[in-house]
Amino acid sequence: MDASPIEEIKSRLDAVEFISQYLKLRKTGANFSAVCPFHAEKSASFFVSPTRQTWRCFGCGKGGDIFTFVQDIEGVEFGDALRILAAKAGVELKKQTRQAIEMKTERQRFYEACELAARFFEKQLASSAPGREVKKYLLGRGLSEESVVSWRIGWAPDTWQGLHDFLGSEGYTDNEIVGAGLAGTSDHGRVYDRFRGRIMFPIADFNSQVVGFGGRIFGEQKEGEAKYLNTANTLLYDKSRVLYGLDRAKVEIRKLNSCILVEGYTDVIMSAQAGIQNVAASSGTALTPYQLKILKRFTDNIILGYDMDLAGDTANSRGIDLALAEGFNVSVARPAVEDMDPADVIAKDPEIWRQAVSGAKTIMDFYFDRAFARDDTGTPKAKKEIAGLLLPQIKKISNAIEQSHWLQKLSRDLRIREEDLREELKKVKLNQYAVPGGNGVSNVFAPAMSRERKLEERLLVLILKFPTRVSDLDGPARSFFSTDGQAVISVIGKEPPDISGFTPEQRDYYDKLMMLADSETASEKDAANEIECHLFGDRGVNDCLLKGQLELMQNQLRAAENAADPQKVADIRQKIGELFKSVQGLKLRRNGKQNEPNI
User: Fold this and answer.
1) Over 90: is that where the pLDDT of 11 sits?
2) In the predicted model, is pLDDT for residue 556 greater than 70?
3) Dihedral angle, C-alpha 445, 450, 456, 460, nearest 10 °
4) Apex CA 133: angle with CA 130 and CA 137, to 5°?
5) For residue 449, what pLDDT is reported?
6) Beta strands 259-262 and 46-49, pairing class
7) What is the average pLDDT across 1-26?
8) pLDDT at 445
């Protein structure tokens, strides 16, 4: 691939701005940091450098430019990353040769097939007689003409091979049409359209590329026929990993620091139409670990906009438990109008939905309201049932103070001694739900560095930050550094630094150190003191070198004694004595330095 479009894309897209679409970045010195999306961690070790236009995680070791970021975060090949970034940057890739078309990745072919299918369904909604009836129905539900067009709602004609024949005429094979989730194969080998007689909602990935569809039956529902039908799992689409509307809502979610989760496509569309943009749908599934991992990039606050059954909704309960385990603050929006979906509430009066969202209750307040929503709360049987519903929820709370708060509230509301509730709480057994890494993310950290290499890295970071201090490394201290460290020292203070002779490993090391130096906040005076400690302090560079020499000489002394060579024994003992004096000199130099850095 000619490098020119790659360089043009890099010149148009800022790494910080682009990566901030995926992660919550915060300013850290000259760089930006975030919790790494590629391994499990609580503190931020993922850094983006605006000056170098690169990113790196110092926890798992991943790093690179915006191309490698897209490849890793989306799980795609370089060709797909190039196409995604070219679309973002507005760079038109050169017209492809026939050979290049034949070499397109399977993933890219599926993307193109799904996009063509979306256009086909849109055309059917706009121009066919049944499609016009569907549009009339949608407008009657409260959707605006603009929303129908903007969200690309379409119509799948009630025919067996309408879409199949269209895609075939565009050069797609039966295997590709089936592989993209747009068709199925009968027992007799006949390929047929998966979606027939349905209102079609295109489902997009994070980059607004169509990856699948949700189809709602229109007209009479036949026996055994599902009201809603989704694309089956494909290379592009996995229902448990996608949130409908997130590609449009992500900016507003980050801005408002909350995401409203609803169940249906029209719930999302109607909310956006009413001006509430931070909304996404789980598309009929309970919250999954993968969806939560994605949401965690943008916010720690989830507002649930769908109904839940405290007593028996196991799937939703599991999703909420997973969200709480992942550190989300979960609340529930319940509109004053009961038994209506958000879409219907908004169609009735958008203000009702806005009030429900702004007045969302914490998940525990919601549980208490639901448990006490009965007339006979004072009877022994009712008290036992209410406690049976709420004690498991209270036991899931890890914070002892918060758990005690809710126990006290339950004690007051039921008029039962708190001690009795605590005894019952001990009997409660919970199902524990593991939270996998998600998105193919590895939880394996890079191998731990030795103390010597940590010491080298810290010294180089400080000296890269303040290049005039490089002279501090003159003399014997230079021998402490690794080959890669020596290479970095050789270019410090040179403008521009010439790293053309570096090995790939040395370039990578230099890039890592420069990113850390950009984030360094120490003043030059503090840096000078720290460098002094690292060079001459206890277990510092010179200390390590002297102890290493001392160990070597002691081995030589034992060998000389075994060889019965008195002259050599005397010479070595003299040198050992001189080394001891050097060590003593370091101790005197350290005198009064009590706050040495901990490496």
Assistant:
1) no
2) yes
3) 10
4) 140
5) 59
6) unpaired
7) 83
8) 35
Class of domain 3-99: alpha beta
Q: Which amino acid is present at 123? A: K
Q: Which two tokens stand for residue 375?
A: 């007339």
Both tokens of 530, joined, read 């720290």
CATH code linked to domain 249-445: 3.40.1360.10
Instruction: Tell me which residue has tokens 């620091």.
Output: 257
Sheet containing 279-281, strands listed edge to edge, beginning at the edge strand earlier in sequence: 279-281, 259-262, 301-304, 329-332, 361-362
Residue that is written with structure tokens 């309970």 in the block = 286
Cα 374 to Cα 163, 307, 332, distances in angstroms: 52, 18, 20
Residues 361 and 331: beta-carbon distance below 8 Å: yes
Structure tokens given for 411? 């004690």
Tell me how far apart the terminal alpha carbons of the chain are, to the nearest angstrom.
45
Q: What is the pLDDT of residue 417?
A: 94
Tokens matching residue 70:
């897209």
pLDDT recorded at residue 99: 46
Q: What 8-state DSSP symbol labels residue 244?
A: B
Fold exhibited by the domain 105-237: DNA primase DNAg catalytic core, N-terminal domain (3.90.980)
Report the alpha-carbon distance of residue 131 to residue 498 in Å, rounded. 65
Question: What was the pLDDT predicted at 309?
Answer: 60
Contact 192/184 with Cβ under 8 angstroms?
yes
Domain ranges for the chain:
3-99, 105-237, 249-445, 451-590
Tell me the average pLDDT across 374-400: 89
